[in-house]
Each structure stands twice: as structure tokens, then as C-alpha cells.
Amino acid sequence: MATIYFTFEPREDLKQPLLSEFSQEDFLFDTKLDVEKLAQAEILVTYGEDLKEQHLQYADKLQWIFVASAGIEKMPAEAIAKRNIIVSNVRGIHKKPMTESILAHILALKRVLPFIYEQQQKKEWNKKARPTELNGSSALIIGPGAIGGEIGRILQAFDVHTIGCNRSGTEAPYMNETYKLDDLKQHLPKADIVISILPSTKETKHLLTREHFEKMKNSAIFMNFGRGDVVDTETLIKVLQDKLIEHAVLDVYEVEPLPSDSPLWDLDNVTLSPHFSSHSSRYVERSLDIFKPSLRKWLNGERDLENKMDILRGY
To answer: Where is the D-isomer specific 2-hydroxyacid dehydrogenase NAD-binding domain (predicted)?
Structure first.
């Protein structure tokens, strides 16, 4: 019998089927990490932000951490790797809600929805805005993995030409063209929309510089839905103040929550979303759909789990 410790509690309609399906196992549920329960667990299920290095001294039995999130940058990676604890996550789970969020923002800007809402509040009949069309444009997706591929699939349905940039330059699904990340600068001038879905790693931190934005079209939309540290905040603020691009849509930031005194709040060419583009009423449901097959494997002695990660590389 394995002891499985959740540091969050799923809804009852999701929790009960889990308990029924794995009735021989010992499940512990909590709303925050408790070291006494952690000490009993072979398997930890967490969102990844509560586990600290000092907690591992109590986790003598811990063998597998299932992270119900795509990002693991707040976890004690070196300490986990030293213990040879297996880590897997829910990579790909965000692709549906995030794609819908990104598409909603793009269409809102193209079809001037913020202007429409503003005029409605003012009770004004005003046709002075200039809507544009999404079809026929080009989108450059930095990090065309599971999420980027889904974005590409939907954008292609709108007749958008998709360009992917990844580490290897190997062909990526739903990309009309794919290039190496090292060659990003030479392909930025092609794009009407630039979307970053990159994780936070040593290689991606402050990857985008002012020079990258100078290569973009003045009419470009830049969207960051990966991690906030892909671009230095002060650099991004200056780019927007200097109007090097038309607009930015940000869902992630170097410091979260975004401080109330950040100049970003006062700019009229940026849309600020509070890092919830992936949120959905189906989030935990989809997480468990990944966890349960891996748990069956684990209980059968298999260790080749879905979305198994290299904790030191960050993905």
C-alpha cells in the first residue's frame, strides 16, 4: 500500500472516483503542506510552490513528486535531484484554456473590443476605431511545444502563417516554418504577432532584449504567456514607452503579483492579465487524468511516467 499525500483537496466529484479507483492505497489530503503527513508519503501531489528544501529532511519515504503545474522553478531542484526523487508534471494540460485566452486577446485587439466596451460605458455611438483582420497575418511562436502547437493549430484555422522557434530548429507541429532559437532575431521582422511560451530556465532568463523588440514590426503585438523573466521588466517598460511595438499582452511577470507602483499599470499599449490564462474549471480534472495512469504504472513497479522531468533542466 502506497501513501499518497495531496497538498490541495480536489472537489468531491473528482476525489471520490480517485479513492474508489485506488481503494487499496492510503490517501492524505490537506490545504497546505504538513511535515508530519509529508513524512508518511511515498508520493507527493502538489502545485509545486509549497515544497521547500527544509521540508525534504522530513520526507524520508518520498520517491515521486507529481506537480499539478507546468512550472517547477520554485521547487528545490538540486535537493530533489540529490535524493533521486522522480518528478513529473502536467505538461500540456494548459494548452486548451491558454490557447483560448491568447486567441481572445488577439481577436479583442484586432476587432477593437476594448474600444467598443469603453464606448458602451460612455453611452456613445462611435465608429472612429479601425478594426483589423487576423487572417493573412503571421505569428511567431517562441517555444512551440504542447501549448505552442495548439496555438498554432487554432491560428492556422484563421489563415495565420505560423513560425516556430525552438532550441533545435526541428520541425514542430502546426508550424509552417520552424527555426532555431539562436536565429530568432532574423525571423522577428516577419511576424505580426510574437508569442512567448518559454519556461523559466537559465537559458531563457532575459533572452529577449531591446534589440529583439527593435527587430519587430512597429505594428506587432507581443504576448508573454510563458514566464515573466524571459524579458527584463525595465527593458519591456522602456520598449512600450518608446512605442517600438503596437501592443503587449502580459499574463506573466518577473515579480508576481505585479506591484501596484509598476509603470506597466499606467501604459495604454499593454494589456495586463494576472497570470491566470490557464485557469479553468476543468484544471484539476485534467491533472488527475494525467496522474491516474502514472499512478497505475507506479504501483505496478514501472517508473517511465508520463511527463517525467529533468528537475535540474527545468522541463
So the answer is: 103-276
Please state, in angstroms and rounded to a whole number, the distance separating the CA atoms of residues 200 and 109. Answer: 27
Residue 262 lies in a domain: yes
User: Residues for the chain: how many in total?
Assistant: 315
For the stretch 137-188, pLDDT in tens is 999 999 999 899 999 999 999 999 999 999 999 999 999 999 999 999 999 9
Distance, C-alpha 69 to centroid of its chain: 9
Give the number of domains in the chain.
Answer: 2
The strand ranges marked E within 218-265 are: 221-224, 247-250
C-alpha cell belonging to residue 116: 467598443
Is residue 251 in a domain?
yes
Average pLDDT (83-111) is 95
Contacts of 205 (CB under 8 A, 6+ apart): 229, 230
| Statement to judge: residues 163 and 247 lie in one domain | yes
Return the pLDDT at 225. 97
Clarify whether residues 198 and 246 are in a common domain. yes
Quote the pTM value.
0.83
- Tell me whether residue 237 is in a domain: yes
Share of the chain above pLDDT 70, in %: 100
Confidence category of residue 80, pLDDT binned at 50, 70, 90: very high
Q: Answer whether 26's CB lies under 8 Å from 5's CB.
A: no
- Residue 254 sits in a domain whose CATH number is 3.40.50.720
CA angle in degrees (0–180, nearest 5) for 286-292-297: 140
**Helix spans in the chain (H):** 12-21, 35-38, 77-82, 95-110, 113-122, 146-157, 184-187, 210-215, 233-241, 283-299
Does residue 311 fall inside a structural domain? no
Looking at the fold, whether 183 and 210 belong to one and the same domain comes out as yes
